[in-house]
UniProtKB/TrEMBL annotation:
Residues 1-28 are annotated as: Disordered. The lineage of its organism: Eukaryota, Fungi, Dikarya, Basidiomycota, Ustilaginomycotina. The keyword Cytoplasm does not apply. The gene is TRM6. InterPro entries: TRM6. Keywords: Nucleus, tRNA processing. Belongs to the TRM6/GCD10 family. It is found in: Nucleus. Residues 1-22 have a biased composition (Basic and acidic residues). GO terms for cellular component: nucleus; tRNA (m1A) methyltransferase complex. This is tRNA (adenine(58)-N(1))-methyltransferase non-catalytic subunit TRM6. One of its GO terms (biological process) is tRNA methylation. It comes from Malassezia arunalokei. It comes from the Eukaryota.
Amino acid sequence: MDESTRPENDAHAERHGDEQARKRPRYTAPFVPTNAQLRERTTIILPGMNVYLRLPSGMMKLVTLEKGSIISIGKFGSFEADRIIGKPFGPTYEIKPDGSLDIMHQAVAEALVESEATNENIFDDGESQSLTYEDIKALKEAGATGREIIQKQLEGNKSYEMRTVYSQTKIMKRKESKHLKYFTPLTPDMFHVALYNFDRNPDKIRNMRADSLSQCLSFSHVQPGGKYLVIDGIGGLLVGAVLERLGGFGSVHLIHDSDSPPALELMPQYNLMPFQTHNVLKTLHWAATEKRWTLPSHMSEELSRVYTSDRERNRARKKRANIEDFIATRQQFFEGEFDAPHLQANMVPSLLL
């Protein structure tokens, strides 16, 4: 070989080796979420989250907080979503006339002050309140705030100062719920997801209360790293609770009765992070749980098809990956060794186990 061409050939080989190295699949360590990432979903309000708002009436309203959007809570007012995005869950916010939000602080110290007042000499004859409905209406039309109206009512109540602190607090709470515009963002955890849906449509979740759902998870010892079989006929309430408890560690095999993945319409209410579902939630339809079941012809043909161009291979990569994941999920199902089964559907358990 001519010595003059050797450096050029070596350079070409080196470039070729670099290209091959780039094409080789590299090992990537599994993602391990930090404690801060695990807590973020239930501590900080993030853009795009589905959030429960507790209203003055005591009811809960589900809203989606998108940046730049206006959130309406009916007669209780409206506010800009940006004003609470990035803020923690839990505080109660009062909606001011200009649309701004103020945190409502509970007068705990005042409620603990001892008082010798009693209600024994108070008679509810309807004459203790001097402020009439027309007076309150006039105050509203004049632009008085809710707190100003409440203050006027208390000043016009002849028996208010004679009442006990407990009774005064009850009156104040009742008037605040009537005249103030406020809300409390609640954490999107298992308790509130179950509570909201039980109050809204108990039949849809087969009357599954929050305490019952919690007992299901506790009695089956659901914990990170476990392998669980789930049959969810309540819109994703059950499988979402299991995934929340796992925190991204372990696997959940969801058995459903359709060829395509189930809708699980309640799952978005949990606001689960991608790492809590990716490679953790695995779905399998009932037919595939039978050992005699075979791959449909279109799947088998896809796996055996030979593509001649890179473009065709790239287009088919995702489709093949989904089929391979399905085969792997089915194999894991037959391997068994589930830590616990979870069933909440219109089925007879003895026929399934």
